[in-house]
Write a structure and sequence with these properties.
CATH superfamily: MTH677-like
Helix content: 40-55%
Number of helices: 2
Largest sheet: 3 strands, antiparallel
Mean pLDDT: 79
Low-confidence stretches: none
Structural class: alpha+beta
Number of strands: 3
Radius of gyration: 16 Å
CATH topology: GMP Synthetase, Chain A, domain 3
Number of domains: 1
Strand order of the largest sheet: 1-3-2
CATH class: Alpha Beta
Oligomer: single chain
Strand content: 25-35%
Length: about 110
């Protein structure tokens, strides 16, 4: 099983988002769904199993950590680590889009902030 761990910092966010447990749960759901969909699309039936672990740390900045363990039957010429990297990159992109949309909605509902 190949294991990949990646972290990403997201800066310039309204940290108020992370005081709401439902918002954090939704962010985790979006990241997990992105990973599952990408793995299914790219690897399909060649995937035996995968384990996804998502962590979110909030201080002055936000750090999202994704651990992804994947077991798949692939031809030797196919690099599973590269595939997993692309899947994780896509998940980070989806998280950024979601957080930008949340920030935009917050600004619209609270224009004085």
């Amino acid at each position: 099983m190949d294991r990949i761990r990646r972290s990403g910092k997201l800066m310039g966010l309204n940290l108020e988002f992370f005081s709401n447990e439902e918002s954090i749960t939704e962010l985790i759901r979006i990241v997990e769904e992105s990973i599952r969909n990408e793995l299914d699309e790219i690897l399909g039936l060649r995937t035996d199993e995968y384990i996804i672990t998502i962590g979110i740390e909030v201080d002055r900045e936000v750090r999202i950590t994704i651990d992804l363990d994947v077991k798949a039957h692939l031809h030797r010429k196919i690099n599973l680590c590269n595939i997993v990297d692309k899947v994780i990159d896509h998940a980070f992109s989806r998280a950024r889009v979601y957080l930008k949309q949340f920030a935009r909605k917050s600004e619209e509902s609270n224009p004085h902030i």
